[in-house]
Amino acid sequence: MSRLLVQVISEVKDRIRSADRASLFLDFDGTLVPIANDPGKPQLDAETAATLKLLANQELLVTTIISGRAVEDLYRRIRLSGLIYAGNHGLEIFGRDLRFVEPLAWSRREQLESLFGDLGNALRGIAGVLLEHKGLTASVHYRLSAAADVPAIDAAVQAIVARNGALFRVNPGRKVFDIVPRTDWHKGAAVRWINRHLSERPALTIYLGDDASDEDAFSVLPDAVTVKVGDAAATCARYRLPDPAAVHEFLMWLANHESARLQRA
Question: Would you say the pTM of this structure is higher than 0.90?
């Protein structure tokens, strides 16, 4: 077990003893599964799916998968009941009798459709660009593009979104430009909404994520156990794990720990 993983487990073990319940948030790409060149490829492996199923069955722990993917896409890749699914960076939420869609994002679907068409026209001639329309947001993936083409991709995305600058903004991610509606909503707001609707009592919040959008949660959850997955770049998270394999190791420990806690209760 690595030193980084020991640090996370030690913190959670100390704090979970006195918590009435815990609320676990997990990003998908780069956290539960490795980043893939093609965003359509990632799938849970059998071991991770089995561990998530164990977590979904815990009484004192609620697990949310929170991702930039559309919520339907996210659910198709996991298909477990007992979880909460928060898609489009938390703009849409369902599971465990919760349902939410951010109203401003919903109202701007037609404008996003038009913007997406403009992106397709502007980027059609650049090899390796993958465009993804996700209903409430859109993404321009350039992981497969030549490094020399990235400035042109960036300039085209920025220029097209700037025409709709009052409605949308560009969020750079890991070799992706996410086009999201300008609202006060983000992953951190979604975490607080979910926790508030699960119980009036505060929960121990545990959040693991790898991308720039997860910083929106890290920065507004000062009392949470926050874990950046991946490299040691600047982050608001308190801890770090190197990769999805280490995340799975932590989740196995957490599932077994919670099962033992229930048996003792």
Answer: yes
